[in-house]
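Help needed: design a sequence for this.
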């Protein structure tokens, strides 16, 4: 079983920056892909960025050039550096991780952290 604990959300003005962190803990599974999703009010949850254990990354077009995902494999922690934030980045950001126990892959979710971009 894997637990994901997020931190770093908050209120920021347009053009500002925030850094989200997500630490995975637990035993029995190795973590492969980690990522961030977000859900704006009245909208479906969408992928923001993902990163493989080898460091390959993928971003949704709307955040390319502004957000950077990174990870520390030794700490099983993934980060999302968000710069030049816009009002449309507002939402609940969820950490996601795929764990492999040698038999099957399981997807885990964090509890979510609120990001509000407003003046």
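Sure. Designed sequence:
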């Amino acid at each position: 079983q894997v637990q994901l604990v997020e931190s770093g959300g908050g209120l920021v003005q347009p053009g500002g920056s925030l850094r989200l962190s997500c630490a995975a803990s637990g035993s029995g599974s190795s973590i492969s892909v980690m990522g961030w999703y977000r859900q704006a009010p009245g909208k479906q949850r969408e992928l923001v960025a993902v990163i493989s254990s080898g460091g390959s990354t993928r971003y949704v077009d709307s955040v390319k050039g502004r957000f950077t995902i990174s990870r520390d494999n030794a700490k099983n922690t993934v980060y999302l550096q968000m710069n030049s934030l816009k009002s449309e980045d507002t939402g609940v950001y969820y950490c996601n991780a795929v764990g492999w126990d040698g038999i099957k892959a399981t997807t885990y979710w964090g509890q979510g952290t609120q990001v509000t971009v407003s003046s």
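The CA atoms of residues 75 and 109 lie 17 Å apart.
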